[in-house]
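Dear support,

Our group has been running a series of protein-ligand predictions, and this particular one with 1-deoxynojirimycin is the one our PI (initials K.S.) wants archived with full inputs and outputs. We had some confusion internally about which version of the output was final, so please treat the block below as the authoritative record. The input we submitted was:
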Amino acid sequence: MEKTLWYKDAVVYQIYPRSFCDSNGDGIGDIQGIISKLDYIKDLGVNAVWLSPIYKSPNDDNGYDISDYRDIMDEFGTLDDFKEMVKGMHDRGIKLIMDLVVNHTSDEHKWFQESRKSKDNPYRDYYIWRKGRGKNGKKTPNNWMSNFVGPAWKYDELTGEYYLHLFSEKQPDLNWENPKVRQEVADICNYWFELGVDGFRCDVITYISKVYDKNGNLPNGSLLKDAPLMGKHNYCMGPRYHEFMHELNQKAFGKWDSMTVGESQGITFKDAFNSIDESVQELDSVFSFEHVTTPDSILMVFPKKFNLVKFKKILSNWQTLPLTSQPTLFLENHDQPRSWPRFVGYCQENKEYAAKMLLVAMQMQRGTPYVYQGQEIGMTNMVLKDDEYKDIMARRIFGIMKKVCPPLMPIARKAMAKRARDHARTPMQWNDSENAGFSTATPWMYINPNYKQINVKASEEDPNSILNFYKKFIAFRKGKEIIIKGSYIPYYEKSKDLFVYQRKLQNKSYFVVCNFKNKEIKFKVPQGLVCKTSSIAISNYDEINTLTLQNYTLKPFEATVFEIEE
Ligand code: NOJ
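Confirmed final output from the archive:
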């Protein structure tokens, strides 16, 4: 099938199905709920949806632990519901990107159930089993730590060996060295492509190739370099990563007019070209996390202040890739806290301007932008008590801290208040009625009490809402050649207040000025900028007091895009 590269001018909306919309009153979002909101999604102007996992799963990690790759989780609906949803999306010109979670399965997947039965079971080698170290084999096979805290190995009595799990014990890692596993993954992709899916977001895909020594053992990692959550591991972009991805591309991705995006922990700009350029035929794009980890720090426990200069530098690097390599543009997803106040500092009075400014700052760059559900109405983090966190990550951090070092609980509490994944998973706030219009039953996850003010209905009615600006901006962005393929020229790179850049195609360009501060700032047109005529293309302030590009005073969190001609 011919590749139309449709994602080069697409805006993707991410749905976390559990928290999006509940149609059957069980407190859990579902596929029929998504179907009921397809017009809302279309109205937003996006042209693709990335759906977090909806496959059968015991939900140890909310669907990122799959027990059957070819069927739908009971709580979410049936395959018929799925087909109706795909049709509903396609009828509205919306593509569907499914989550592909194949670094690991659930321990309830039949492959693992078989694999643990005996050392000579045909599925044994689908997973990574090793003997323990030490005299009586009581030490884990190496010192790797799981991303959910604690050792990455679990002892299984049945055969007296350990299996590797880089996430929870219920998420055993698949053994990609086994060609049968790679074939299974390709078959799963083609199964969903045949059902109409348009692409995949590949979960922790940079973890699939592990490092082995010459005896087939997995070597110890250095505790500092390979610490969990730091993004650099012994198993990140391992030696066969590119080979495995190319093979999957040849067997599945490359055969369809698809789009793929890798969740690529540990990937840096250095690896970008070799991983996503059209010429390498692996993935079409990747999520790198360097820019969103700038506000955080080691183990998420000691938050740092947001550093705009570093943030701009990281993003600007990705903009230097050739047009055959597509960057991704995002601030939020189901693992990240909400972007306000993370990237702009705490501010109540100009919060809406801040949210709109972040949109312009991110999406005027080249790349495929992602909007995470609720971001378009300015949903925020929520205050939770220790026992109200639902996510496995927060629960484990609290559990271990309480057991090992209770005096450090206040630090863990402070960190989770800022950083827990729960913040992005509170139910979507549709209106100000009971349960925010998300469900008629008690929702599976607490609803942010600010739903009375922050909700879709109120946003639709307010012409100045964040939502209405998102619609205006996404419509503005669509089809603009300068945004899709213009060059990127950064200005004032050392400024701690402003994010300024030009997007240029021949003699026309957009000049983007974003004020990251909640105060007025004097802006000076950069020396040497050639500009014969200029006008405002779009701004988050309707009433800005200049009509052409000139020295002027920017308003708090102002984001203005000038169209200029040389
Ligand atoms: C990344 C996903 O985004 C996250 O939610 C999940 O817990 C891990 N991968 C494990 O699958």
